[in-house]
Amino acid sequence: MKSLEKSDPKFLELNTRLTEIDDIESAAALLHWDQATYMPAGGAPARGRQLATLRQIAHEKFTDPVIGQLLEDLKPYEDSLSYDSNEASLIRIARLSYNRSVCVPASFMAELSQHRSASYEAWAKARPANDFTIVQPYLEKTLDLSRELAGFFPGYEHIADPLIDFSDADMKASTLRQIFSRLRQELVPIVEQITSQPAADDAFLHQHFPETKQLEFSRRIIERIGYDFKRGRQDKTLHPFMTRFSTGDVRITTRVYENDLGQGLFSSIHEAGHAMYEQGISREFEGTPLASGVSSGVHESQSRLWENLVGRSRGFWECFYPQLQGVFLRELGNISIHKFYRAINKVARSLIRTDADEVTYNLHVTIRFDLELAMLEGSLSVRDLPEAWNERYRSDLGLVPATDSEGVMQDVHWYSGVIGGMFQGYTLGNLMSAQFYETALNINPEIPVDIERGNFTSLHQWLQENIYQHGRKYTADELLERVTGSPLSVEPFIRYIRGKYSELYPM
Amino acid sequence: MKSLEKSDPKFLELNTRLTEIDDIESAAALLHWDQATYMPAGGAPARGRQLATLRQIAHEKFTDPVIGQLLEDLKPYEDSLSYDSNEASLIRIARLSYNRSVCVPASFMAELSQHRSASYEAWAKARPANDFTIVQPYLEKTLDLSRELAGFFPGYEHIADPLIDFSDADMKASTLRQIFSRLRQELVPIVEQITSQPAADDAFLHQHFPETKQLEFSRRIIERIGYDFKRGRQDKTLHPFMTRFSTGDVRITTRVYENDLGQGLFSSIHEAGHAMYEQGISREFEGTPLASGVSSGVHESQSRLWENLVGRSRGFWECFYPQLQGVFLRELGNISIHKFYRAINKVARSLIRTDADEVTYNLHVTIRFDLELAMLEGSLSVRDLPEAWNERYRSDLGLVPATDSEGVMQDVHWYSGVIGGMFQGYTLGNLMSAQFYETALNINPEIPVDIERGNFTSLHQWLQENIYQHGRKYTADELLERVTGSPLSVEPFIRYIRGKYSELYPM
Questions:
Q1: What is the nearest CA distance from A162 to chain B, expressed in angstroms?
Q2: Which uninterrupted H or E stretch holds B236?
Q3: CB contact under 8 A, B42 and A248
Q4: Which end of chain A is more exposed for a tag (fewer CB within 10 A), N or C?
Q5: What is the Cα Rg of chain A in Å?
Q6: Are B442 and B434 in contact (CB under 8 A)?
Q7: Do the Cβ atoms of B295 and B245 come closer than 8 Å?
Q8: What backbone phi and psi angles, to 5 degrees, belong to A236?
Q9: Which of A436, A416, A432 is nearest to A424 (CA)?
């Protein structure tokens, strides 16, 4: 943190130590980015070891009792400052992370980390082979370890709560169940109504779109909406992601399918949404735990806001569609904007979460969330998971996967992470994106007009001021309350979906 | 190090610790590579800090007294093993580095590191402004710090010896003076004789050669000579370099000038020479201090061998020139191989070391080496350095730089390092390259014939077996004796130069 001349010496000491840890974590993030982008195949074995070493050192340094002592000694200093102050916030957030980290023995973390790698390897073989029995023993151990991990945080209401807390702090399984159940109740009839009508024609999105042209156009778009290439870059990877090495270096990756225009385009906007958030964090927080997004949910709200609420809006394409047609004249010259707009908002029951439209998407998430809870509670065994998965797809989406590869093995999360807390952030993000955006439009009704004109400054500035700059200073709940005046609610999302889709599909 | 089942437990402990340190150093190397290749400008401030943090941690871990104790405890174990064994070698080399590292206080290293950055910044401004007075105070401090650094190693014969020892262990200023003086004595009349004749015409190398085609051709060449792209890659940077993250990931960088065909081509072969050395180190040494080149001189011998003795040989181009002509048909279609061969071996008195041909190159080095010694001895002040530089260029090369930018400020070394030990490795490398290559040809006279046919296996295998695989196991002297049966000598290089250039320029 900068400008600390007048601070408590113990605060300075804490700050120095946290920055050192941030440096190590940023180095690990770069090793990972390199692994996904440019590393030659031969680098893999040593890279795994190097990453483990850096993470281990960062963990050791963060759980050093000296940090605990500093945090304790700094309590009176923290209490003397306002809750909102940068310094009090840093102490508060560091304490939260510290308390969480010291609960888990380093030996357990090492075991879990090793198991996650092994499990990922198994999944990478099992999925193309469509053989769930390969991953089953790994997943059983993952479930055991997930329970053990939760056990390090006694006093929970639901065994999933500590696991959810890792990515969406303060969220509880009981709250999520209520929210998700209300959401499902609203969405199922909407999906019903839409899919009873003729589907939008999106065949023209599957012509041949050369990679270079796609990349150039995506780049133009994300630069225009506010992603700063002087403080970032975009490279190709198998799976798109965003990663941050400092406020001045926040990178995104993308993938392009030459036979699917939407993939590269919307994933670029999605990752740029994540990245603009991190680029917008106050420079004061550089090198501290405040310099990241609040939670999985809030982060996803920023990517989905740009990808869906802006990037799949009619106004956005009023501005950009003529440009896109210019780039792909032969492919799109005869396609009207109305037809294009319908195609990029095609709603369909489908099997794959990552390809799902914004109406059905959350149904995919709630299925996974419920199955996670059932496994943790012990009411569902790993052995019965594929059948339970298929059953829920039949009941919620009216489809049954023909194979486990496009069923229970489609997502990497359980196979490279833990069971519990892996999916709720996606839906929380969708809900929050609508809640934030509704507020932004209430406060500045010019935003949609600006967007139609290709001017994203008003929206970008609103996000910068209300969300980006704060980094991790506030919890998700605090941020929602501060920005929207309300706690998390399903209603803005439902209003958004109804408003948008009733125009596309009379309801 | 692998396959250690039967080792002493303390050896295993040492090995584990050294691998952890190697992991951190490899991560730092990746941060540096990224900074030079893909990092956006905004990443610079944090990157400097992150690099400093990793290096500091590696230094702390390596100078941990526990390492010293392990090395002491392992002395009897080491003595029970043969000198050549991997384990004894690892203990021996680790002890050498450890003893060197603990001599220098961490606070001094931090000061030096900080000063080097500041000095580099000053040079980056002073050089384009052609203003030596900007760097003079920095260089004066560099000289003070260099003397102080040498002072941590009392008992030296010459104050430069400890500084030379950092990159070319066991080399002494007195030995180098003798060797360099003998070399200069031989070279000056050869340069005289050559430059009294009409210069080779290399104007055609300065036509327009598109970057992409140059990069493709260089890639083809270095892959053919044995650089393994599955365990490496080549990217563009301002200054070419080689860097190693593991035996499976040894990368090189290059730069291309569209109006100078030789630059990209020969610097690619040069860096590939460095990289093949590191790629060829025994996999047993992975993650240990044995997994690197012996010394600055031996490393340079491997790059220069490929760049000059192979890459600028007539036989090499008998194979590749038709291919090069095929790529640049319009530019080279009418240029005979003889004319091309003369052009890439043009000898000329010049001002810039990095552009110098292989005959005059060492004269540039000896100038710098003598000036370093004079400054360290106190017989030359930094203030008088530019004049002394110009005087030596007049006497040795018959040219005087018009500006300090193309004179005393041309090389980054003194401005980002120390004064002392910075340059001798280049000439040692040239000498050793000839000594090694002469031995290789004596043992396998088929090598040049193979090269003419585009077959580099015989040479590559000889290097692999005799040099690459050993990594840092032997000192430069030991390696020379083992491989060539003789200590370092000027004669093979002189024989090589006379042999090659008497054909090109009758002497």
A1: 32
A2: strand B234-236
A3: yes
A4: C
A5: 23
A6: no
A7: no
A8: -90, 140
A9: A432
How far B287 CA lies from chain A's nearest CA (Å)? 8
Report how far residue B294's alpha carbon sits from residue A477's, in angstroms, rounded to the nearest whole number. Answer: 58
Is some CB atom of chain A closer than 8 A to the CB atom of B64? no
Cα A250 → chain centroid: 15
Q: How far is A25 from chain B (nearest CA, A)?
A: 9
Q: Is A472 exposed, middle or buried (0-12, 13-18, 19+ CB in 10 A)?
A: buried
pLDDT value at residue B286 = 95
Per DSSP, the three-state class of B474 is coil
Q: What residues in B contact A24, CB-CB < 8 Å?
A: 53-54, 57
| pLDDT tens for each residue of B187-204 | 999 999 999 999 999 999
Residue in B38, B228, B247 closest to A233 by CB: B38
Q: Any catalytic annotation for residue A140?
A: no
> Are B246 and A286 a contacting pair at CB < 8 A?
no
What pLDDT does residue B6 have?
Answer: 66
User: Which three-class secondary structure string do you get for A315-354?
Assistant: HHHHHHHHHHHHHCHHHHCCCCHHHHHHHHCCCCCCCCHH
Task: Read off the tokens for B336.
Answer: 């005979």
Token couple for B216: 């493709």
| Global ipTM | 0.93
What's the CA gap between B27 and A25, in Å, rounded? 11
* Spatial CA neighbour of A256 closest among A235, A275, A272: A235
User: A99 - beta bridge partners?
Assistant: none
Within 10 angstroms of residue A485's Cβ, the number of other Cβ atoms is: 9
CB contact under 8 A, A23 and B54: yes
Are residues A222 and A272 in contact, defined by beta-carbon separation less than 8 angstroms? yes
